[in-house]
Amino acid sequence: MANYNKVFSRKVYLYYYWFQRIIAWFVYDVLFRCQIEGQENIDFEKGKFLVLANHCSHMDPPLVGYAVPRPIAYMAKEELFKIPLLKTLIHCSGAYSVNRGVKDRSFIDNTIFAMNNGWVVTIFPEGGRSYDGHFMGAKIGTAKILLAAKVPFLPVALINTHQAWGKKKKIKFFTPIKVKIGKMVNPEEYLPEDHLSEEEKINLINQYYQKKLIELLPSEHQPLVV
């Protein structure tokens, strides 16, 4: 029986990695006229790092994987792993389950486990999809992961995906979408001073990566309330 709380085997995934990239090229470049900006900011020498992105669409997780050409794992809500076929498809594509209603550190441990097993992990700090494309603000779970893992993060802005296939909306093919990749942020840039409390550290880290994400977003995606 598959353990959906843990990431899928990266070694097995690599057998069909390029097949997935060909499909992704057709979907994103041909059907959605995708533009990718800032791939030169990806440091492929970094063994472990997180990708932090805004979230507006069903298409966002594989889109990040297409824009950042590394095996990408990502957290997905537990409910998706109760759907036959879909649970196998997303798990084999790098998803692992997170129970958003349980307050424990399993999501931290499972994310670190994924990185230790060769995956780059994408996290959507908002914790859900934005209806209108505006950045909704980040939850503190991502800050807890960064504080525990102390790894670099790569900010990525996904632009106009809510128009292409937004929450509770139909797919609109040939909608132009864009991925804007920021500069890699190393731990020494975001880790607060040691004398601060854990809560203070988490809040400061949360504010820091939100700022890095918001800087990449166009005005129409900026948060309505800062």
Give a brief description.
It contains 9 helices and 7 strands, in the order ααββαβαβαβαβαβαα. The chain is of the alpha/beta class.
Topology:
Blueprint: H1 10-13, H2 17-31, E1 35-37, E2 50-53, H3 60-67, E3 72-77, H4 86-92, E4 95-98, H5 106-116, E5 120-123, H6 141-149, E6 153-159, H7 161-165, E7 178-181, H8 187-190, H9 198-216
Parallel strand pairs: 1-7, 2-5, 2-6, 3-4, 3-5
Antiparallel strand pairs: 6-7
Helix pairs in contact: 5-6, 6-9
Give a written overview of the molecule.
- This protein is 36% helix and 14% strand.
- It has 226 residues and is an alpha/beta fold.
- It has a single domain (10-219), classed as Glycerol-3-phosphate (1)-acyltransferase.
- Strands 1-7-6-2-5-3-4 form a seven-stranded mixed sheet, sandwiched between helices.
- Helix 5 packs across helix 6 and helix 6 packs across helix 9.
- The protein is globular.
Overall strand count: 7
Task: Count helical runs.
Answer: 9
Distance between the termini: 44 Å
CATH class identity: Alpha Beta
Helical amount: 25-40%
Please tag this protein with its features.
alpha/beta, Glycerol-3-phosphate (1)-acyltransferase, 226 residues, 9 helices, seven-stranded mixed sheet
